[in-house]
């Protein structure tokens, strides 16, 4: 068995959990995913089965699109609401006009520092493994590109937005950086990945509904 599955990952599962479920469901050893989603995040997770795992490097390079919500005034150790709150700052002086002024500054080619709670490796160890031990290390900024970033809805302290970006862009870190620019801090409360390359949320299948008919061909 081989091919591509476009899964709609539910909240609370890791990407590895989804891979394990697909491995068991289809009784196949070679299964991988093309782009990690946080447990908090939902949406498009591309699963590669059998010989399709050869496509990993190609798929991991695809641009991605997200809908997300950030909470102004709340700073956590993980940059999302699943972490521990480390600081609360007033956000009431921030206006929608302030947001509209700041958002364009975070489009185009940027340097982004990976968050400590990420799978980026430092001396052979994943950053989140170090973070769970209370260890913080210096991280080198990485080049990313945000092709599009727009505000969808503002209901303070919540700001819902849409973004299209290159591989390696962290939505959580973007929220942190925008929050710092606004002077109030921020964290993410919700992320939905709506697109990976040309695979979009409309074709994504819920895990409980997946069957062999949903496996797409990988051969060109």
Q: Can you describe this structure in just a few lines?
A:
This protein has 220 residues and is an alpha+beta fold. It is built from five helices and 14 strands.
Q: What order do the helices and strands come in, and which of them pair?
A:
Elements: E1 3-9, H1 15-26, E2 31-33, E3 42-49, H2 56-60, E4 64-72, E5 74-76, E6 85-88, H3 96-102, E7 108-112, E8 121-122, E9 125-126, H4 127-132, E10 142-155, E11 158-165, H5 171-182, E12 186-196, E13 199-200, E14 205-206
Parallel strand pairs: 1-14, 3-12
Antiparallel strand pairs: 1-3, 2-3, 4-11, 4-12, 5-6, 7-10, 8-9, 10-11, 12-13
Provide structural commentary.
The protein is an alpha+beta fold and 220 residues long. The chain folds into 2 domains: 3-62 and 197-214, Pseudouridine synthase (2-Layer Sandwich), CATH 3.30.2350; 67-192, 2-Layer Sandwich (Pseudouridine synthase), CATH 3.30.2350. The protein contains 5 helices and 14 strands. It has helices at 15-26, 56-60, 96-102, 127-132, 171-182; strands at 3-9, 31-33, 42-49, 64-72, 74-76, 85-88, 108-112, 121-122, 125-126, 142-155, 158-165, 186-196, 199-200, 205-206. Strands 1, 2, 3, 4, 7, 10, 11, 12, 13 and 14 form a 10-stranded mixed beta sheet that branches. It has a two-stranded antiparallel sheet with strand order 5-6. Strands 8-9 form a two-stranded antiparallel sheet. The protein is globular, with a radius of gyration of 18 Å. It starts with a strand and ends in a 14-residue tail after the last strand. The mean pLDDT is 92.
């Amino acid at each position: 068995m081989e091919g591509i599955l476009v899964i709609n990952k539910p909240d609370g599962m890791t990407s590895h959990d989804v891979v394990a479920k697909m491995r068991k469901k289809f009784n196949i050893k070679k299964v991988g995913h093309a782009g990690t989603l946080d447990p908090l995040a939902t949406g498009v997770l591309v699963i590669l089965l059998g010989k399709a795992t050869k496509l990993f490097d190609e798929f991991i390079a695809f641009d991605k699109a997200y809908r997300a919500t950030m909470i102004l005034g709340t700073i956590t150790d993980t940059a999302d609401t699943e972490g521990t709150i480390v600081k609360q700052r007033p956000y009431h002086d921030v206006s929608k006009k302030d947001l509209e002024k700041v958002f364009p500054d975070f489009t185009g080619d940027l340097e982004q520092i990976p968050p400590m709670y990420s799978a980026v490796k430092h001396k052979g160890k994943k950053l989140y493994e170090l973070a769970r031990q209370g260890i913080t290390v210096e991280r080198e900024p990485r080049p990313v590109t945000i092709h599009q970033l727009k505000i969808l809805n503002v209901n303070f302290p919540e700001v819902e937005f849409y973004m299209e970006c290159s591989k390696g862009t962290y939505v959580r870190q973007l929220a942190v950086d925008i929050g710092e620019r606004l002077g109030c801090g921020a964290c993410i409360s919700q992320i939905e990945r709506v697109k990976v390359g040309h695979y979009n949320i409309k074709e994504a299948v819920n895990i409980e509904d997946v069957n062999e008919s949903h496996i797409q061909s990988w051969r060109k």
